[in-house]
Amino acid sequence: MRRTAALLALALAAAPPVAAQSRDAWYRDAKFGLFIHWGIYSVLMDGEWVMENRHIRAAEYERIAAQFDPQHFDPAAWVSLAKAAGMGYITVTAKHHDGFAMFDTQVSDWSVTRRTPFGRDVIRLLADECRRQGMPLFLYYSQLDWHHPDYFPLGGTGHGAARAEGGSWPRYLDFMDAQLRELLTNYGPVAGVWLDGFWDRSSAEWRLAQTYQLIHTLQPGALIASNHNGVPHPGEDLITFERTIRPDHLPAGNTLPVEVSEKINDTWGFRLHDVEYKSADSLIRELVRTAGSDANFLLNVGPMPDGRIQPEAEERLRAMGRWMERFGRTIVATRGGPLAPRAWGVTTQRGDTVWVHILDWPDQLLALPLARRFRSARLLNDGSPVRVEQGEGVTLHLPPRRPAEADLIVELDP
Question: What is the SS3 string spanning 196-221?
Fold first, then answer.
């Protein structure tokens, strides 16, 4: 697989466990990951928020667990697809807001091993396969819980679950930490923990310092992400945003890795009537723009209730993989380039080599305010040389744009 595969292999080889001072280096290099939203909610085929959106009472929601029997679930196919797409890690929902554990928890019977005819530990199967294929795995864990009786008082969601009024918040936090302990001790080394739901009760006492210490003690190489879209709390190792980076939510002088999560269609979990699939070219452009912002791109799929990833999603991931085979070295193991993102595109760099990604520029002249001088320039799309004028800046003489190109890439060699 060309130089991109070699770069990706190097990034994966540096995955946890690693020395604490360099534990995010592999992650910064990976640049592209697969997000997987999958749970018993897929049975209702209306997204991962179906319990909340339809105001389904917890007692009735429990009945769908008996319908979850994904006979086509193939973790090897999932991991192989991620690798074929040029992705460097996977983030999977171990527990979403419905509180249902997709792993064999011992502190509750609300789990895939005890309530479903499938009866197998999904996280175990996927973690073992990720280890076999050398794919780092993040475990998504929802702090928010619409099912647990001790998640009380309620926050902004979960009011349709019709649970009994009352509960012990400290006892819920103990339960949460107990499940995290299981995930961090029973499934081998993990790349990190991706937390979500803090925002539901943002003013509550979450004991974050205690939880973060638990995670870092059990797995020193694991990175902690929290999807609260605010300035990071002490102990968080990366900053994650949904859909777009929010510069005003980044701390001054930020040194933490940044990630953007996005959907292939319009929902995170499987929804039967969601046919709003983004084109492969538009997803490639989003990946490129994110890399040019020196951030990782976490692209989501919501597998069907039978365990298969939708063919439309697989088609787009494989198309992105073909693009990554040709141009992935301008993404993997790079950092944001010398120019901040522009309306026309972005730059990435590795060492002294700079790549100019031209996403939307109708002209054949592109002036770049770069003080550096470059020895040569070539168009990676076809290998042809690009004429460069260098004075106070750098001006590229570009060929006419071809409609089929998602990204026109000029390599500037020092």
Answer: ECHHHHCCCCCCHHHHHHHHHHHCCC
Joined together, the tokens standing for residue 204 give: 């509550």
Question: Does 339 map to a domain?
Answer: no
Residue 18 lies in a domain: yes
pLDDT, tens only, 38-81: 999 999 999 999 999 999 999 999 999 999 999 999 999 999 99
141 plus 40 within the same structural domain: yes
Nearest to 145 by CA among 190, 194, 113, 110: 110
Cut 0.90: pTM above it: yes
Instruction: Please answer whether residues 412 and 394 qualify as being in contact, where contact means their C-beta atoms are separated by less than 8 angstroms.
Output: yes
Nearest to 78 by CA among 264, 304, 240: 304
Residues 200/156, Cβ–Cβ less than 8 Å: yes
What is the sign of the dihedral through the CA atoms of 236, 172, 206 and 201? positive
State how beta strands 335-336 and 345-350 pair: antiparallel
- Domain count across the chain: 2
**Is 340 among the domain residues?**
no
354 in the same domain as 299 = no
Specify whether 8 is located in the same domain as 142. Answer: yes
pLDDT digits (tens, 9 = 90+) for 364-401: 999 999 998 999 999 999 999 999 999 889 999 999 88
Of the candidates 180, 181, 189, the one whose C-alpha atom is nearest the C-alpha of residue 14 is 189
DSSP 413: E
What is the span of the domain harbouring residue 61?
2-334
